[in-house]
Structure formats: C-alpha cells, structure tokens
Amino acid sequence: MTAPKIRIRKLYKIFGSASQRVLPLVRDQGMGKPELLAEHKHVLGLQDINIDMQAGEISVIMGLSGSGKSTLIRHLNRLIDPTAGEILLDGLDVMTLEGPALRAMRQREMSMVFQKFALLPHKTVLENAAMALKVRGVGREEREAEAHKWLVRVGLSGFENRFPRQLSGGMQQRVGIARALTANTDIMLLDEAFSALDPLIRTDMQDLLLELQKELHKTIIFITHDLDEALKLADHLVILKDGAVVQQGAPQHIVMHPADPYIEAFVGDINRARVLRAGTIAVKTAQDGAYAAKVDWDDTLETVIRAAKGRADAMIAVLKDGQVAGQIEMSELLAALIPYSSTQDSTDYT
Question: Is the pTM above the cut of 0.70?
Fold first, then answer.
C-alpha cells in the first residue's frame, strides 16, 4: 500500500490556558474529559488520534455533537494548532510550516467547504467561485474561465451573475463546491457541508459529490453527524466519541462488526438492507451454478431481496467485473439484517 496522503499521529488538543501543564494528566495518567473539566477547567477536544487518510479516498469523520469532528478537521489546515502530536501531509509535518509556507499550503494543497456556505454576499456567483484563484493572483480572464467550468459541472450554468441571496440553500452550497474545485487542490475538507440542507437537496448533493469523485479522485475529508450519509460516502469511516476514536475502518465492516456497545447503538437503528452491499455477505465461489438471479458486488441487499422475488430458497449470484465472484443464500441475507449485539451469541456473518 502506498503511503497515506495525510497521517495523524498521537494528536491531542486541550482547550485552556494551561494546556501543556494538564496534558500529562490525560496522556500519561488517563484522565478523561469530564474529570479534566471538573478538576482543572480545561476541555479535552482530541485524545490520542491516529488516522491514515489515503489519496483519492473519501475519509468520513463522524460522531455526535461535541465529539471533536470539527476540531479535528481544523487541525489539518492549521486553523487550530494541536497541544501535542503530528500531522503529516505527504510526509511533511505541517507544524513546521510558518508564514508564507503555511499560507501556500492552505491555498494550494487544501480547499474547504463550510456548513454555512461562507459566500461573500456582495460578490456574484462567478466571483465567489473564482475567489481562491483571485487570492493566488491569477488573472481575471483565466480565473473566471476556470470558475465557469466548475459552475457548469455542478449544475449552475446561467447563474454566474446572480448574488448568493438570489439562490436557494442547495444552490449556494453548489457554489461552495465549485469554489473548492476551482481552487484545484488535491485535498478537499467538507465540514458538515450538507447538514443545513433539506433532505432531498442533501441527497442530490451527496450524489453530486460521488459523481465528481469518480472523475476527479480527490482526497476528501468529510465531517458529518449523520450515519446514513457517512455510510453512503465513506471509503474509510472514523467514529469519534468525547474526542477519541472509538472505531475506524471500512464502513461495511463497522456495521457488521461493531467494536463496542457504543458503536452497536450507533449502527443499531439503520436500515441495513439499504446500507449493506451484496459483496459484504457473499460467500466466495469458484463455479457457476443455477442462480435465481444475478446482482452486482456493490448492489445493496434491497436489490438482492428484489432479485429473489420472495423466494426463501433462492440462490443469488454476485458479480464482480462481470464474473461470478460469490453467491448469497437468503438465510445468510436474513442473518445479516439482524443487528449485531455483544449480548447475544456470536454470529459470523462473513
């Protein structure tokens, strides 16, 4: 495996006037967030974070309010400095960057899409989308041509001369995405970018992001508190609680194998048929057989159920690259639909 695009190691963030003094209490003595606040009036934002983010993947950081999601993403571009730890970008420790080098990293390596859109109200849609290139000193004709290209890609052709107040929330967020794409950075940071949108618009934005990612292969760090959104978007999922990583890995694996009761509760209420993929529960097979139907490796279990047409004895073939790579019996599918619980007898779904 190639080296991670972003590597976070032993990252701590403590908010307060004497963060370095109380750091050993957390790092060496194991003091938790409630005790640190009660006894020392300091807030534990992040605790021993270790994450690798691969180039070209969507890494989703999720958790409840106060879990440290937004604090973590703001460390990547040094909007917040850590109390301790390393943040490596292509092997370079971003904590060594100061002044012009830090500004260059923010302008050329990372772009950010915010929850509240962060558009300039007195600038047109085209001017907002071109802003990152204007800051770099790119000429007007070149930057506006590039901005126009991405506005077209996100479905805003014809809106270039309007102002943000004349757009719906979903359209404003499309401008934010176009602005990030116009910046042409390898890394995109999206901090709860779709949380303020209505459900249908939110779904459209998720689909747009996935469509663009198939083409562009950006390294995307996406913050959300919505599990369905995380499972839809993530190549790598990280779940935080009280500033610490509770579990991380492939989303399908986390759903099937929650690490502790907190994760069990987190994933317990999701519609597993809509989330789990056929390839996740398929049993590998080396031979063709008499199958009731065929589905793709990445199809959801809902698709498998429809393909079975109500037959409890149906055997469904699972294809990868057009070839049979596995098969699903309906009894195995039904077992996968039952949420795992550490209090029940252990069941191996794979």
Answer: yes
Backbone angles phi, psi at 124, to 5 degrees: -70, 170
CA 73 to chain centre: 11
User: What backbone phi and psi angles, to 5 degrees, belong to 122?
Assistant: -90, 0
Whole-number Å distance between alpha carbons of 252 and 87 = 27
Q: Which residues pair with 110 in a beta bridge?
A: 187
Sheet holding 84-89, edge to edge: 43-53, 6-15, 84-89, 92-93
Distance in angstroms (rounded) separating the CA atoms of residues 290 and 292 = 7
8-40 burial string, b = 16+ CB within 10 Å, else e?
beebbbbebeebeebbebbbeeebebeebeeeb
The per-residue pLDDT for range 57-107, each reduced to its tens digit, is 999 999 988 899 999 999 999 999 999 999 999 999 999 999 999 999 998
Q: Is 310 left (phi over 0), alpha (psi -120 to 50) or beta?
A: left
